[in-house]
Amino acid sequence: MRAWPIAAGVLFGAALIVWHVGGDGAASVGRAQEDTWTTDTARQQGIRLVESRAPGGAPAYPIAPGDLLFFTNSGTSYGARNRRNSVVVIDAKGKKPIAVSDLEPEWTEGWISHGIGVSPDARYVYLPGQAAPMSKRPSSILVLDARTLRIAQIIATGERPHHLKVYEDWMGRRRVLGEDFNWINFGVPPPRQPSPPGKGFYVLDPSDNNKVVAGMTPGDFRGNPYAGFTAPDGRYLYVSVTGPIPALRDQMKGWLAKVDMQSWTIVQFIPMERYPLWTTFTEDGRYAWITQSGDSKVLKLERAREPGQMDRVIAEVGTGPGPYALAMTVDDREVWVADKGEGVAPAQRRTTVTVIDAGANRITRTIETGCVINDHIIPAPDGREMWITCNGSHEVVVLDRGTYQVKARVPMPNQGDSHGGSFVAYTRGAGGAIVGEVVADQNGLHGSARVARREGRPWTARASR
């Protein structure tokens, strides 16, 4: 295993190539000789800051104390009519889009995104982008100012960035976890064929200019790490490991790697079925649920509670074909599973969500959503709704937790494919300024919503703290 801590004052300027990309006149570009961004971890993983800008300008949308917004991406794949990779901001109360980013075509035209993230303090939006075929630009994470939706940084991982999500570690530090597509991709055109595996995962510190502060490579996992999720204690990261190429994901068994985030070492390899994918946890940390996309089921894991104990699988429950994401309800009574149809023939796909009784380990209902290729499930911070993103029908569908019915459909304004999202709540701070916080994303609840869940009380978007 390799863990690369931050090195103070690292200078890596001569090796970093930076160029200017046309934007607003106020944009400023960081120069290679002035680089103080590149840490030892970034250098070891080949992650570089391509460009820095001053993302000034007018806000792209209004905010007020008590607002709750949902940030999602709108990509250019899955039959999308959208031509530019973009961010869509939705009023979560009114269920209406209120803003769409308008970014330079050289970084967005024909680019694909399968995820999105927002920093814990809602200062940045992270839009991953897989470069268009034959692009002269590297696949990158576009770090946008969350209020202006203009580029603040461009970070190139060296391969195809995938998911981003926030977490709080065992010391209370709030970070952003990023992941690449890590299997070898034989589907890209020359001269980039085949595409090398990605950089594994990496941790960004949004409080320190989004520097890379930790990370692990595919070699550290002895395989292809796919998606990682943090346990409630903030100490352990669970990463699904699948086949090395897409064609093998559904044909070979994988494992779940339990990573100690204090030492950045794997402390347990947990055998899984075919194509292990998403993980979610009960708030007390006793149980975890993992989708097994290749076998169309989920596994229930009992986590170790005493020294010397090991995590172990104690139950499995069938789902719809090719499940992808899943989420716990705020009371830990149910697990909701997106029946995406991952890896199955189009004729076998469904537009459903499977609901599982988490105590009895059985299906209680199947919800018809009309959401084509439903991908991520993000719990609303008040626990009353589940928001699911729809790759194929280019929308976000909102499900009512109480009635199990479709409550709203939010079409993407530019008809792009949506993958994932983050809820941001706004309040008036002590000094009178309006401040934001991420309260839920694909890694579960965060901030004040997480505190409310832990204390067993309802969460509401408050106008003031």
How would you sum up this structure, described in words?
The protein is 5% helix and 41% strand. With 465 residues, it is mainly β. It has a six-stranded antiparallel β-sheet. It has a five-stranded antiparallel β-sheet with strand order 1-8-7-6-5, with no helix packed on it. A four-stranded antiparallel β-sheet has the order 9-10-11-12. β27 and β28 form a beta hairpin. The protein is globular and about 55 Å long.
Beta strand %: 35-45%
- State the low-pLDDT regions, or none: 1-33
Structural class: mainly beta
Q: What radius of gyration results from the CA coordinates?
A: 21 Å
Question: How many separate domains make up the residues?
Answer: 2
Proportion of residues in helical segments: under 10%
Q: State the distance separating the first and last CA atoms.
A: 43 Å
Overall average pLDDT: 90
The biggest sheet, with number of strands, parallel, antiparallel or mixed sense and barrel status, is: 6 strands, antiparallel
Secondary structure tally: strands: 31
Strand arrangement within the widest β-sheet reads: 4-3-2-29-30-31
Layout: helices, strands, pairs:
Layout: H1 40-45, E1 48-52, E2 68-74, E3 86-91, E4 96-100, H2 105-108, E5 117-118, E6 124-129, E7 140-145, E8 151-156, E9 161-168, E10 174-180, E11 201-205, E12 211-216, H3 218-221, E13 224-230, E14 236-242, E15 253-260, E16 265-274, E17 276-281, E18 287-292, E19 297-302, E20 312-318, E21 326-328, E22 334-339, E23 352-357, E24 362-368, E25 374-379, E26 385-390, E27 395-400, E28 406-411, E29 421-428, E30 434-441, E31 444-445, H4 447-455
Antiparallel strand pairs: 1-8, 2-3, 2-29, 3-4, 5-6, 6-7, 7-8, 9-10, 10-11, 11-12, 13-14, 14-15, 15-16, 17-18, 18-19, 19-20, 21-22, 22-23, 23-24, 25-26, 26-27, 27-28, 29-30, 30-31
